[in-house]
Amino acid sequence: MDFVFEDHNLVIVRNKFEQFFFKYYIIIIPTVYLLRIILQYVFFYRPYSLFDFTKIITEVALIIALIFSNKLFSSTPVLISQLFLENIVSPINYENKDEIHSHKHYLSRLDYWLNNKFRILPGMIASTIVFSYYIIRTGGFEKFISNINISMHFIDRGLYFLPSVFYSYFVGLVVWKLIIISRFVSFIPNKFCVNVKFGHPDRAGGLLPIGKICIKMIYITLVPTILSLFILVGPVMKIIMDIPTPLANSTLLFIFSPLILFSGITGSIIALVPLIKYHKVMENQKIKFFEYLNIISQRIIELKMNLEESDVTLKKNAGDIIKEIVTLQEFYNSHDRINTWPLNRKILIGIWTTQTILWGQVVGLYKLAIQYFL
Predict the structure, then answer these.
(1) Which of 48, 69, 139, 187 has its CA 20 to 30 A from that of 290?
(2) Neighbour-count burial of 357, counting CB atoms closer than 10 A to its CB (0-12 exposed, 13-18 middle, 19+ buried)
(3) What are the residues facing 11 on neighbouring strands?
(4) What gap in Å lies between CA 70 and CA 19, rounded to an integer?
(5) Residues 35 and 112 in one domain
(6) Which residues contact 261 (CB under 8 A, 6 or more apart)?
(7) CA angle at residue 317 from 311 to 320, to 5 degrees?
(8) What is the SS3 string spanning 263-303?
(9) Same-domain pairing of 280 and 301
(10) Could you list the residue range(s) of the whole structural domain that residue 182 is in?
């Protein structure tokens, strides 16, 4: 997938190494998994990775998250530029020309922060956390060092946790870019004039691109909850399917699952902040627009009263008056109920569905915790 959009002067992923991973992850992740299965089959005669359901679900969730990330990365420059090209967003004319923020300047700043060297920090933190987790599982750092050798067993374990550490770095990168995109999209009303067009064909005041960006971010942040859902229903699946391998234990249920759900809630908040910001903008402009509708309403009343007049001249112009009334009435009726969210029905359903899944898991975990600890 090409992340370079020269026409918009915005590149979501500039680093060549990062571009390579985001382009070929769909090959890299399954290949590493298959390599581990082959080594286990050849040297241990039992490819137990086939039964490591937690690992399988984790990597499937990662692939899905990266698919949604690529969709966000490829569409964001186009959607943002659409707002400027349709004059939904326009520069504010300050007295001081140095304060004027242009489309080009905005995109260049967004590009700068998306690819800033600080993006490495969340990636390194995520990798360190995952690496530390595996070190603790193996009995500590000293035991991990003492077990370093060239045996197939060590290579097998390395193929188990080292790819996860590597993948975690890119998860951190995605988190960074989500935060930056959310921040800059929310930033637009502060530095630009947002011209809400309530008669726009998208039925969202011309701001539907904002809703599209937000729902794409929500999908990314909610993908990890696939794993928490799997953990929550794991005990039930184990009984029904008679699976010998434990699908979930108390550590997964009451430590990892809450962490995943917390990240999902935090990610949803980050993704929903722009929607709330633009809702306030649309509400403010709705008040002004309703003042205009009141003028139209008064004009309709005035024309209807004129039709009731007995003046001969007015009766001769009755056809023109009726035509004007019909035109104004149609305009009034079509704008009487104004949508003040940058959403359409499809996006709204997507938001409600994802949040229902998220908060349904929170309630389910709460009930499990009560049964377990009380």
Answers:
(1) 187
(2) middle
(3) 4
(4) 10
(5) yes
(6) 225, 228, 358, 361, 362, 365
(7) 145
(8) HHHHHHHHHHHHHHHHHHHHHHHHHHHHHHHHHHHHHHHHH
(9) no
(10) 4-293+336-373
Give 273's contacts (C-beta < 8 A, 6+ positions apart).
182, 186
Per the structure, how many domains does the chain have? Answer: 2
Distance CA 220, CA 241 (A): 30
Tokens describing residue 299: 């004009």
Question: What sign does the CA torsion over 36, 164, 66, 110 have?
Answer: negative
DSSP reduced 3-state for 86 = coil
Closest CA to 273 of 144, 182, 152: 182
In this structure, the strands spanning 10-11 and 4-5 are antiparallel
Give the span between the Cα atoms of 301 and 305, in whole angstroms: 6
d(CA 21, CA 220): 17
The residue among 343, 121, 67 whose CA lies nearest residue 213 is: 343
Q: Same domain for 20 and 74?
A: yes
pTM (2 d.p.) = 0.82
Q: Across the strands, what pairs with 5?
A: 10
Q: Which two tokens stand for residue 72?
A: 């966000």
Residues 64 and 52 in one domain: yes
| Residue carrying structure tokens 């909610």 | 222
Stated length of the chain: 374
Residue 187 structure tokens:
């930033």
One digit per residue, the tens of pLDDT, for the chain of length 374 reads: 444 433 447 899 999 999 999 999 999 999 999 988 888 888 776 787 788 877 888 899 999 999 999 999 999 999 999 999 889 998 876 555 554 568 888 899 999 999 999 999 999 999 999 888 888 877 776 766 666 655 556 666 777 888 999 999 999 999 999 999 999 999 999 989 999 888 788 889 899 999 999 999 999 999 888 888 877 776 655 555 555 544 555 666 777 788 888 999 999 999 999 999 999 999 888 777 666 666 666 666 666 666 666 554 555 566 666 666 666 566 655 555 678 899 999 999 999 999 999 998 888 888 878 877 76
